[in-house]
Amino acid sequence: MASDVVTSPLSLAAITLATLGAILLLAGIAALVRGRALRFGLRTVTGLLLLSVGGLAGSIAVGIQGYRALTREDVAARLFVRPEGPQRFAATVRFPDGRERTFDVAGDEIYVDAHILKWKPFANMLGLHTAYELDRVAGRYRDIEQERSAVRTVHSLGRERPVDLFGLRQRYKFLAPLLDAEYGAATFVPVTRPAELELRVSASGLLIRDAQPTSN
Question: What is the pTM of this model?
Fold first, then answer.
């Protein structure tokens, strides 16, 4: 998976740093037993620092799971829409890994948005680059009054994870030198007939267009 490619170097770095930190802590304890206070202090401080950095790298590696590396323009999903009544339709989302989810949606149009993580150059050196995850699919009404008062249907497309990097970046400003977290430009198209669509994502946002035939 693309997410594995994104996280593998960082996971390796996290394991390496944590291992070195643990070794230094053990060496510090050994120095203390021998009565060498200065070595104990230096090794302990360095070991704790390495463990902290390793823990941060590990948290990022866990948090990035589910995100896909963004190259030029990727097919984020295929959408199958089918009207089932006035301002009601079924929407099936097929992800690149083969997973499918089907939703009942109210409205005239299908709407999709995404989370996009843009890593700074420092993080790029660790193998982290711009990545995205689809966030939600919803129905959208053309009429503004209906948009305010009619039945709303919003469904999550993201996965639950132990570390929510997107949420953490929005809450804590000190992460700004590491990454930017933003919504990709949302996209929507009318649903008037059964159709197969492609949801594409690029650095400039999301786009829905008629699906291209898949090769056998």
Answer: 0.62
